[in-house]
Design goal:
With 267 residues, the protein is mainly α. The protein is 74% helix and 0% strand. The protein starts with a helix and ends with a helix.
Length: 267
């Protein structure tokens, strides 16, 4: 399908994908509430900071950080690796390939169409955040807010493309979900999901700053909570989008190689 025709088909694809998300809303909500680890870490770190701050983090700062982490996690998550792994193993990917719209685009739209349901959870948390910590924990720089919006899109792209790439590995192995488990373990440790990246020892942080995990969660949270000035925000944003571009190239290459193998086996 040519680009104009694809663009015309997108609204319908969004409507169908949103209807699917609503149809499976109970399963969807269970998945969202399974990502409440930041709220547990909030309680733990707040207890630690009760007597004295940890770095720049007092109790209020930890509340702001982990509520922001919960919100960013809700809005940037992607489950495409599990979906692709199932469809490749069962051969049902062939049905998706018969459609005139590129499969990567349909996976992306399915993820994005679920955002309204995620907002149902994220917006009340944002309200709780403002009520508990006040607006003083938010950045007041409009340029940093603009960088935050771009960082949210970049975080979703890095997460989606990572998940898509791992899903493509199912073309070459029995199941790629073990790879996803390894990635998630590294993500939990190094993304800022459980521990703010700036609390890492300097030597470790120097390494983490160049890994993709921080750009999935940590960067948008840091921008929202005013941890960076304009120059640092834009530099980190450039690094994040560099990762997104790199992953896009690797994903397309792996997808094409995988499709050749899928077709060879009669998928």
């Amino acid at each position: 399908m040519k680009l104009p025709a694809t663009a015309r088909a997108l609204p319908t694809l969004f409507k169908v994908s949103f209807a699917e998300a609503v149809a499976y809303r109970a399963e969807f909500l269970v998945w969202m509430f399974s990502t409440t680890m930041p709220l547990i870490m909030l309680a733990l770190w707040s207890a630690v900071a009760r007597d004295a701050p940890v770095g720049r983090f007092g109790q209020k700062e930890f509340v702001a950080y982990f509520l922001a982490t919960f919100i960013v996690r809700q809005l940037t998550g992607s489950w495409v690796a599990w979906e692709m792994n199932f469809e490749i193993r069962q051969g049902t990917l062939a049905l998706r390939l018969l459609r005139p719209i590129p499969p990567m685009l349909t996976y992306a739209v399915q993820n994005l169409a679920a955002q309204p349901l995620r907002l149902v959870v994220a917006l009340p948390m944002a309200a709780i955040w403002l009520a508990s910590t006040g607006a003083g924990q938010l950045t007041r720089d409009p340029v940093v807010w603009a960088a935050f919006v771009a960082a949210m899109l970049g975080a979703w792209l890095v997460t989606f493309l990572t998940s898509f790439t791992i899903g493509c590995l199912a073309f070459f192995m029995e199941s790629s979900l073990k790879v996803m488990d390894v990635w998630l373990t590294l993500f939990f440790v190094f993304s800022g999901y459980l521990i703010p990246v700036e609390l890492f020892p300097p030597a470790l942080r120097a390494v983490v700053d160049w890994l993709p995990f921080r750009f999935q969660i940590g960067l948008p949270v840091e921008l929202m909570t005013g941890a960076h000035d304009r120059a640092a925000a834009l530099a980190l944003l450039g690094r994040q989008w560099g990762w997104a571009a790199l992953m896009m190239g690797g994903t397309i290459l792996l997808w094409r190689k995988g499709l050749q193998r899928f077709a060879a086996y009669g998928g």
